[in-house]
């Protein structure tokens, strides 16, 4: 337990450093966006590739993947249903669905997986499910609801397939599966860039907290309860009762489900000009709530 608390302490210190840098404007205007792009386009894809070239793809597409996808869909459907019962529109409820179940696997999931699970590869099934299936299918439905009626499944699929993290994951799994030797001239720079992913992601996350404000309401409360409590509970029940998971496997399934709402949800909300406030507030509140929840989960299952 002490090691877990120490791990959270390390994460918290780096996040605090990012917040302080933003507060003092030490890196100049626009620094957060620049660093976020470095994390998204370069460092995290490099980390995924570096991990997966030595990982058996069968470890990725296992029962854990089923637990992750099923629990996310259940939590998301509950979010959609409850918001509809509150009189919200279908597009607004779809954003609420994502906010209730779309986990911050990239920016926060990888660092926490390193310190809690000691396995950064554990987040790969989450990223694959969300980027390759969950986001494209939901965005297509939002497109269909758009007044322009210019929905394009192919466009959404192409957007997903050109996601840097998905491309890196596919490339890494391919290399790992066929056991292609990676030349040093490629593996060394990839490894160096991979080492920057975790600290930079945490710095960027800390910088993003500056100026965050929340408007408390029942919609936010519903989404946060689903994301921080119901989602990991459902994942734990499916993992243990259906697949007989225990120990490290059960811990990984519950921890991944307990990750807070991803910032991607706000991006999608802004793109469709739908429920932006809920997407933003859910990201902030679920993140703050996730830390004590994750500590409790690790204490109970670790």
From TrEMBL:
The yes or no answer to whether the keyword Kinase is present is: no
Q: Which domain of life is it from?
A: Bacteria
Q: Which family, according to UniProt?
A: Belongs to the auxin efflux carrier (TC 2.A.69) family.
Bilayer topology: Multi-pass membrane protein
| The keyword Membrane appears for this protein | yes
What InterPro entries does the annotation carry?
A: Mem_transp_PIN-like, Na+/solute_symporter_sf
- The protein's name is AEC family transporter
| GO annotation, cellular component aspect | plasma membrane
Q: Where are the transmembrane segments?
A: 6-22, 34-53, 65-83, 95-117, 123-145, 157-178, 190-210, 222-243, 249-270, 282-301
Q: Where in the cell is it found?
A: Cell membrane
Q: Which UniProt keywords apply?
A: Cell membrane, Membrane, Transmembrane, Transmembrane helix, Transport
